[in-house]
Design a protein that fits this description.
334 residues, alpha+beta, Chemotaxis protein chec, Surface presentation of antigens (SPOA), 10 strands, FliN-like_C, cytoskeletal motor activity
Length: 334
């Protein structure tokens, strides 16, 4: 019986009967269960990532898939749908054997992280993209073995711009700057890491118009090793509240004190018709709706705050504050 296996009622009854009749003792059952706990470990297929970290990488690249969908839809002006199909950790050699012998492989550097990331694009998808960029209907074909220099340049430029979206997808775990380092069509020529080194392969289902295929993103363990703690659920769920120090609060208060605010003293207001406005000429007088004996309304920005009276100080116009505006419930908050 393996962990998580559910026994039927008949199996439970048979087990209880065997225990009660002495055919099987509890000690034998315990030894049998302990013996089955031993698992075979394949050192060629070392598991470097926990399930939690694989789930985090899946979430990150689901966001990346959405960004790629938006990018390619705008660039190719056709129906595009990209989604994460799977995320697995396998030896690098197994990844190389799983992709076509002739395919489109983009090698990216992701400074400040060390190492390279591969983006393998199925030729059917790559040529559909190329055909759309060249003004075609998005017809798919496969002639990777004789790519011209112009086709290579167009493809590499397209995928270089597309992979720049990885910066936004990874911003929660690392600040990277993806740069296209190499463009290859034969995976056997790519000896980035040791064949037995573990890599994470994120497979993306891709639909470009009527063409469909897979794009695979291969990330070696050495690239992710410095940011492994950030892929845990604890990092994603923790609240990073940083309390301000007294020095920072004092500096902020000082900057606020030095901020300049517009102060407006209104002499009064008036309402006129559009016809009267159109007939205004130099020398006309507009009568305000406020007596000269009433205090002026003083605004901070557009908010009424004080009342005051006009005057002069050092031969300059000035306003003397007489009091604050009453009846504003939000005075203290503002």
């Amino acid at each position: 019986m393996t962990n998580g296996e559910v026994l039927s009622q008949s199996e439970i009854d048979a087990l209880l009967a065997a225990l009660s009749t002495g055919e099987m003792s509890a000690e034998e059952l315990k030894k049998e269960e302990e013996g089955r706990r031993v698992k075979v470990y394949d050192f060629k297929r070392a598991l470097r990532f926990s399930k939690d970290q694989i789930r985090s990488l899946t979430r990150i690249h689901e966001n990346f898939a959405r960004l790629l969908t938006t990018f390619f839809s705008a660039q190719l002006r056709t129906y595009v749908q990209i989604s994460v199909a799977s995320a697995d950790q396998i030896p690098y050699e197994e990844f190389i054997r799983s992709i076509p012998k002739m395919t489109i492989i983009n090698v990216f550097e992701v400074p400040p992280l060390n190492g390279h990331i591969l983006m393998e694009v199925n030729p059917n998808i790559a040529y559909a993209m190329l055909d759309r960029v060249m003004g075609g209907r998005g017809t798919s074909m496969n002639k990777v073995d004789n790519l011209t220099e112009i086709e290579t340049r167009i493809m590499s430029n397209l995928f270089d711009k597309a992979f720049a979206n990885l910066r936004d997808a990874w911003e929660s775990v690392a600040d990277i700057n993806p740069v296209l380092a190499d463009f290859e069509v034969n995976p056997q020529f790519l000896q980035m890491i040791s064949p037995n080194d573990t890599v994470v392969v994120i497979s993306l289902n891709t639909q470009i118009g009527e063409a469909s295929g897979m794009m695979n993103i291969c990330i070696p363990h050495v690239v992710l090793e410095p940011i492994m703690p950030r892929l845990s659920v604890h990092y994603w769920m923790q609240t990073q509240k940083k309390e301000s120090s007294p020095e920072e609060e004092k500096a902020l208060e000082e900057r606020i004190r030095l901020a300049k605010l517009p102060i407006i003293a209104e002499l009064g207001t008036a309402a006129i018709t559009i016809e009267e406005f159109l007939q205004l000429e130099v020398g006309d007088v507009i009568e305000l709706a406020q007596s000269i004996h009433q205090p002026l309304l003083v605004k901070v920005g557009d908010i009424p705050k004080f009342i005051g009276q006009p005057g002069k100080r050092n031969k300059k116009l000035a306003v003397q504050i007489l009091g604050t505006v009453k009846g504003d419930e939000n005075d203290d908050d503002e």
